[in-house]
Amino acid sequence: MKRAVVVFSGGQDSTTCLIQALSQYDEVHCVTFDYGQRHRAEITVARELAMQLGARVHKVIDAGLLNTLAVSSLTRDSIPVPGYEEMPDGLPSTFVPGRNILFLTLASIYAYQVEAEAVITGVCETDFSGYPDCRDGFIKALNHAVNLGIARELHFVTPLMWLDKAETWALADYYHQLDRVRNDTQTCYNGIKGDGCGQCAACRLRAR
Asked: Which of 85, 96, 155, 172 has the fewest C-beta atoms under 10 angstroms from its C-beta?
């Protein structure tokens, strides 16, 4: 039996990955992380989508330590979420240092326990907002390190790595789920479902 674990936030990208995974694997588990994020309404959205789409299991994992350690506008209400026009040339304040390191490591531990062969994540280097932990080189390096650490061949799968947002929309449409991804997911940094606030970087990228 082919099993996969999807790192699932309930956003456009991870939902598209889940939809594809359900057609490729016999059993799909979703893991969502609660790290005290500003837009934590995404956890409720993730629960609803995982159930509607038919994931075998959906786990919400407490990752509150990340909130304690990582200073970001997504982990501190005192730091405003920048609008699209305010995004800097360097790392934006929405970058949560270590987030994907932690999420992929914890998802790998879970995958080890359920004997899954793949951990699927919606990271993308084409439209990655400058986040270094969304790059292909990082994913491959961490995958290698995890496999050494657990002495098992686990594959980190990144279906969207080289797709732009338009191609991600097209992938959802290919699986006849375009309306669901547009209306029922939450990508917005300000926690608004569907088309979102329209002002944050995540909403502008999604709309563009």
From this structure: 85
Rounded CA separation 160/18 (Å): 12
pLDDT in tens, 56-74: 999 999 999 988 888 888 8
Neighbours of 52 (CB within 10 A): 10
Distance CA 75, CA 64 (A): 10
pTM: 0.93
φ, ψ for residue 136 (rounded to 5)? -60, -40
Instruction: State phi, psi for 143 to the nearest 5 degrees.
Output: -60, -45
- pLDDT of res. 132: 92
Q: How high is the pLDDT of residue 75?
A: 85
Residues comprising the chain, all counted: 208
Q: Are 82 and 93 in contact (CB under 8 A)?
A: yes
Distances (CA, A) of 163 to 91, 95, 155, 180: 21, 21, 19, 20
Separation of alpha carbons 76 and 97, rounded Å = 13
